[in-house]
Fold this protein.
Amino acid sequence: MLRMTLNARSTLVQQVISQLSEQIRAGEWPIGAKIPTEPQLVEVLGVGRNTVREAVRALTHAGVLEGVQGSGTYVRSTDELTGVVARKFGTAEVGHTVEVRRALEVEAARLAALRRTPEDLDRLDAALVARDAAWQRAEADAFVEADADLHVAVVAAAHNPMLAELYASVGAAIRASVAAAVGPSLAAGAAGIDHGRLVEAIRAGDPDRAASEAGRFLEAPAGA
């Protein structure tokens, strides 16, 4: 249930934005869900219609919400950063997208080789097995998810909360780019590159080799 605590140091609109964002991040309204109507929000929050309208408009502009005429307002991302990044990735040149992935994933691999724990290695091994199995079964959707899970596991093994949060914000966009690269029949050979050497470099605690392996997958626009 929504609750509103007023703070004299900030505006009502900012507080409503913060409260709605918190509900979305908490999963009360998952991605794709329809949020309450404007009158319902007014009643629950105890603020004016214009305040609610401005807050919803701000979150819509940020890409968190989307208004569908005749239907209502729906959640499109979990936070402002995710919404902005998704829009940028959606319109960016493929080469630019790959460069951003390199900047994040190469450094994550390097740090993972230095900081990985036994639990991290177990997660990496499981993700690698799932990725390879999905590729062998030629299941495109499963492969995209398994590939993403492996890269997320690498980032998690870096043990840098800021890096993990930033990478999470581009997760949906990366999945979309991988899905486009592999196609429905897993036709793009570059996406099927063996990631075993990356995991082994991290296991061996070799940061230079881990970074090199991570970068190798992203040398071509279709890399995964």
Remarks:
- The radius of gyration is 20 Å.
- Residues 12-78 form a domain with the Arc Repressor Mutant, subunit A fold (CATH 1.10.10.10).
- The chain has two domains: 12-78, 82-216.
